[in-house]
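User: Please fill in residues for this 386-position structure.
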């Protein structure tokens, strides 16, 4: 993506995760921050104020400029950036973006080739359009927390900001598609990425279930994934993840576990029948796993070509032999934060490359550099804008 310039008006996780990927793939990402900075600067452990751990991971390969977009001077500088930009990404609510004079209708007058991506909590066309939203709100609103509750007995949030990151990836793919379309048509366009609708789609792919049909032929929720018995299995000395899915894998499991008697149980006869009896099936596997250690089961199951894994903690992953061999975590030296661990871009391209061109910037670190690129002499700009 070299030669593509992205103006990043995002904060927290959803937008920055999207623009992180664009930056990793080679785009020149200019992160426009208020004088106070992105709130994630102040989350998690840090050596220096404004350089928290989450910010460091989400904002590499970006340059930071501080602008007060409530001032005329700040907006003028932003317009100058937009004139030469390929993509603008923002996470401001619709009314806020309109008040600032930064709607697509306004900015396409500045740059008709601009790909304008608004990432919102809810689509601006619906009654929730201007509601505030964070990941917890969207996990609750989208049915995700309730689906987790089918397993636990009460609604639960997942232990990751799934809505933010999923919407970030959808934003990324949408921007790439729009850039490809512009290569054909020469025209920019507006993209709306609403986190609510994105996560409803994400959740309901499997959990529409019986309501897929009209009239319904069953309830919502895919029973296999919401079974309370779908969990890491306890062994003699710890826990193990096991996924016995297709008929071939079950045949192998009966053999390697010494439970050929289960072949005669009709509840195990095929994938459709197992799905209807999923609690019994998982409970049976749970009982079998208690008979050996994690290490013993991994050796046995791998010989039977049955998917299995030890249950890793985040600390375990830092020393995982597979991740170590592919260089997934790399120790690098940040100019102001010293030695830090960096997370590798997860995709490997055959020809194009991804790289860390620069580390997460300090607030306003590139003010002078970016202003010079715009032909603005440092000192000409008013204090109100920076």
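Assistant: Residues filled in for all 386 positions:
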């Amino acid at each position: 993506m070299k030669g593509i310039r992205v103006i990043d008006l995002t904060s927290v996780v959803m937008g920055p995760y999207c623009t992180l990927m664009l930056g990793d793939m080679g785009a020149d990402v200019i992160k426009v921050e208020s004088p106070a900075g992105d709130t994630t600067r102040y989350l998690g452990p840090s050596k220096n104020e404004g350089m928290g751990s989450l910010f460091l991971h989400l904002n590499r390969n970006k340059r930071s400029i501080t602008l007060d977009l409530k001032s005329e001077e700040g907006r003028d500088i932003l317009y100058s950036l937009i004139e030469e930009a390929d993509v603008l990404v923002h996470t401001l609510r619709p009314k806020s973006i309109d008040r600032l004079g930064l709607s697509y209708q306004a900015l396409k007058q500045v740059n008709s080739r601009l790909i304008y991506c608004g990432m919102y909590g809810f689509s601006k066309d619906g009654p929730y359009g201007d509601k505030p939203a964070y990941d917890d709100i969207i996990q609750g609103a989208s049915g995700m927390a309730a689906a987790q509750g089918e397993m636990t007995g009460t609604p639960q949030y997942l232990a990751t900001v799934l809505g933010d990151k999923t919407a970030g990836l959808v934003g990324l793919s949408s921007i790439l598609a729009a850039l490809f379309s512009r290569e054909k048509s020469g025209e920019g366009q507006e993209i709306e990425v609403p986190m609510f609708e994105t996560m409803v789609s994400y959740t309901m792919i499997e959990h529409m279930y019986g309501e897929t049909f009209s009239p319904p032929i069953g309830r919502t929720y895919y029973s296999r994934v919401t079974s309370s018995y779908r969990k890491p299995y306890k062994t003699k000395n710890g826990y193990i993840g096991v996924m016995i899915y297709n008929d071939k894998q079950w045949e192998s499991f009966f053999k390697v576990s010494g439970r050929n008697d289960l072949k005669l149980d009709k509840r195990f006869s095929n994938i459709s029948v197992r799905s209807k009896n999923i609690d019994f099936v998982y409970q049976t596997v749970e009982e079998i796993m208690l008979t050996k250690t994690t290490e013993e089961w991994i050796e046995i199951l791998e010989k039977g070509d049955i998917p299995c894994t030890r249950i890793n903690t985040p600390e375990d992953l830092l020393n995982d032999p597979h991740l170590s061999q592919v260089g997934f975590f790399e120790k690098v030296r940040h100019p102001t934060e010293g030695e830090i661990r960096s997370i590798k871009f997860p995709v490997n391209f055959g020809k194009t490359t991804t790289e860390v061109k620069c580390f997460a910037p300090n607030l306003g670190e590139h003010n002078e550099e970016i202003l010079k690129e715009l032909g603005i002499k440092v000192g000409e700009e008013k204090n109100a804008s920076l």
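For context: The chain has two domains: 5-202+325-385, 233-310.
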